[in-house]
What we know:
Distance between the termini: 11 Å
CATH class of the domain at 6-138 and 372-386: Mainly Alpha
Helix content: over 70%
Order of helices and strands: HHHHHHHHHHHHHHHHHHHHHH
Amino acid sequence: xxxxxxxxxxxxxxSRAGRTGSAVEACVVALExxxxxxxxxxxxxxxxxxxDFYDRAIAEAxxxxxxxxxxxxxxxxxxxxxxxxGGMWDQSVLVWHELAEVVPDLVTAHVxxxxxxxxxxxxxxxxxxxxxxxxxxxxxxxxMYDLAVAALRREGPATALPGFRRAxxxxxxxxxxxxxxxxxxxxxxxxxxxxxxxxxxxxxxAAAVYAAREDFLGATEVVRKVLxxxxxxxxxxxxxxxAYVKQEADNEAMACALRALQIAPDDAAALxxxxxxxxxxxxLYRQAARAWATLAYAVPEHPMPHVLLAEALVGLQRYARARxxxxxxxxxxxxxxxxxxxxxxxxxxxxxHAEASWEIRRAAYYDTKRKDLFWRLFDDYVxxxxx
Length: 387
């Protein structure tokens, strides 16, 4: 590939800063100096896609690839442009296949390839692509959601529901809900367990940080110290329940959550843990729905309780109510990939396949955006050219 020019670097800086108009102008200037600069073409393509100018984005991405067939970020923009424009599934399949060839370990390329195959009605090839994605990364929730939707189309809810549960378990946004409720991000600094002050609030804050860092044994040890001083502590019991949930000790988690709710019936953290335990057991979808409905009432501005409520309602085959809950989640956060896949599943049960496909395309757009995938590919591409 060609080295980055000063003008292309200016366009890149402006684009990263979110100054779209100025970045487009800088790309145009860079291309006036060198019409065959793949970096400037790729940047311009991404900027145009960002503003929903699909045809122009497709044209610029195509130019970038013609200038350098190894330009991975241009393949990403080209594939997303075809997908979002719709009706160009043959081209989408070719582009995602090429990206998978250029970056073989890029899981998203295989996920997108499967979605393009599915939209083109090649379900067997789609399943192969999603299976390959999970071979590369067994924790990829989007591939699992895609497989669950495919199972729903072919075999019905009974076969599909376990896949949706597995996909939900892989989705980190569910844990983020609990951490939002308890008010930690995991970035806080706390001393080791033995150096914590003898203070309830400080210990519980530390336990929450340990849980955010997935040090569940540490979190349990700190919570135990708090409960030794006073067993009637709802927040400590809720944190203990979460640590047990993450260690697959569901009975212990349920006992702690129920005791916390006896002490504080509206405790959102305990409601979350109880809902998680109930949702794991197919026979307890009704109880899970009640827990999630109460949690959605307690934290109405967070999309995830509405998603979890919808998933429980799908388990009860109450699809109309599930659709309403998913739509609330999407209104609260249009980028909620889990809600969009769930909404797609409901549409499939209602025979609204075009709307289901549209929701999956929107999920793809927001997923690549959330992962900052363009810039990851861009940095690898220009970094490879500078070595």
